Amino acid sequence: MYGVLMIDIDNTALTAEDVSLIKQAQVGGVILFGRNVADAAQVRALCDDIRYHNQDILIGVDQEGGRVARLREGFTPLPAMGRLGELFNHDPSRALSCAYDCGYLMAAEVLAVGIDLSFAPVLDRDGISQVIGDRSFHQEPQAIVALATQFMRGMKAAGMATTGKHFPGHGAIAPDSHVSEAIDTRSLDEIINSDMQPFAQTLSLLDALMPAHVIFSQVDNKPAGFSKIWLKDVIRDQLAFNGVLFSDDLSMAGAKAAGDVSARVKAAIEAGCDIALVCNDRVAAHEAAAAAQDLPYPNQKRIKTMCGNIPKWQGDLESTCQQFDYWQQAKNNVSQTFFNVESDTQVDEPANESKDPTDYK
């Protein structure tokens, strides 16, 4: 049975405490961070070990590209999605082709090391947000829809489910909900007609959504991830979305309005989330696991749709990725377009990359 919690682990290999935690009944997922990654072979061994101790578990990661990429050493760099938007402005056809390649390449390499899903794509508009910025494809909703559609088609072709974030849109407010409370004072109509459009128009390709830790004060006094108005009335009823709802990290400052971590987990699940994320706080993870024992299990059929098509490990990342028919072509196309690298040569990390805005602890 898949449980309602997704937690993290300490290092590049499981500790006895990690094993104890992931074997608890309501732990249904593990999310990996940069501290859990040394190289591809190590990540695959770690994922295999996690599944040895708990078969019914989803393993996730944030591998968006650009600043937000947990898998780096030995993996093919991906551009920030905003670079696809820049390309779209002067060469839309090439940008759409590259968006597909980026989605396929990302998914293939993440799946190859045993991870089910990357929490992608970001469907927020590029506005004034301190934490979104070039994580977004574009400022214009229709450009986001076009690029994200191709990106998700690439993901799905490689065998990975999609997760749109951060519903209904985080780009229009400056505060970073990782570290402070974020309040958007716009009307519901304004949000629906702008920021929500990339989500609404790509719904047929979305397997999951992650709501923002943003309070949309004209709609509800709770952050979207704790709001029955957003999760049940809007997502489930109005949009008729039947996919998975992941909370954003409940350790973030934007989630603290709901109380301690036990209260946050219960509030997120009762509002309509299927799985609650509790990251970067081991004490909180134990408290959440204890509190979750009283909660109902999520819809198992729904959760299983997020399981990735993980290939057999062939001893190294390249050999394993060769099992994906389009991986080499996608890698060549992305590397040549964004990193000026010729085919079949080593791809270097992009230079002068700014700090990952989600790496807040």
Describe this structure in words.
This protein is of the alpha/beta class and 361 residues long. The protein has helices spanning 16-22, 40-53, 81-90, 92-112, 141-158, 188-193, 197-201, 228-238, 261-271, 282-292, 300-304, 317-321, 327-339; strands spanning 5-7, 27-32, 58-61, 63-65, 68-69, 117-118, 163-167, 183-184, 208-211, 215-216, 244-249, 275-278. It contains 13 helices and 12 strands. The strands form 3 sheets. Strands 6-3-2-1-12-11-9-7 form an 8-stranded parallel sheet, covered by helices on one side. Strand 11 (244-249), helix 9 and strand 12 form a beta-alpha-beta unit.
**In one word, what is the shape?**
globular
Strands, count = 12
Q: Whole-number average pLDDT?
A: 92
- The Rg value, from CA coordinates, equals 19 Å
Which class do the helix and strand fractions yield?
A: alpha/beta
Hey, roughly how much beta strand do the residues contain?
A: 5-15%
The helical percent reads 25-40%
Secondary-structure element series: EHEHEEEHHEHEEHHEEHEHEHHHH
Q: Which strands sit side by side, in order, in the main sheet?
A: 6-3-2-1-12-11-9-7
Taking pLDDT < 50 over at least 5 consecutive residues as the criterion, the unreliable ranges are 344-352
Major sheet:
8 strands, parallel
| Number of helices, where a helix is a run of at least 4 consecutive DSSP H or I residues | 13
Q: What distance lies between the first and last C-alpha atoms, to the nearest angstrom?
A: 31 Å
Q: Brief description of this entry?
A:
The protein has 13 helices and 12 strands. The protein has 361 residues and is an alpha/beta fold. α1 links the parallel β1 and β2 (27-32).
